[in-house]
Please model this.
Amino acid sequence: MTMNTSTNTSTDTSTNAAASRVPAEADKDRGDIGAMVPHGGAMLLLDALIHADEEHAIARATVRPTQLFVDAHGMPAWVGVEYMAQTIAAWSGARARRAGNAPAIGFLLGSRRYACDVPAFPRGSVLTITARVELIGDNGLGMFSCAIDTDGREVARANVSVFQPADAQAFLQGHKP
Model:
């Protein structure tokens, strides 16, 4: 398995700071988040992909009282992993679109060291989710370092493992890659 590793060690998750350092072509897919993330309806938690380049992505989500999982306290902290996974999916979808391909289906395998400083993301809060490539294998396996900020403060972080098979339908039917 060939691994590409990221050497970017920056922990700056500020949307404005990241956007000011990025070439315009990296942001051309900022628009329709639904075209980049293979989730529909209530399961799509992201509002927008703010930035995506070859090594990281920044997405935005607003916690709305009508969303799935939201209760009187807000969005439960455990949903943070799903925000992270959807940001990774948006990153992958933006890369695919830049290459002239349709976004592909991928799978969340798990997370390591998920830590959240809040029991819930409050209703009405705007979340900034970042995902940075740690490694990508030629077999479709990947690892990302992710974080969630609200009001300029990091409140959650994790390493997230994903898998994107070359042929998702064959994989789902049990055919080996």
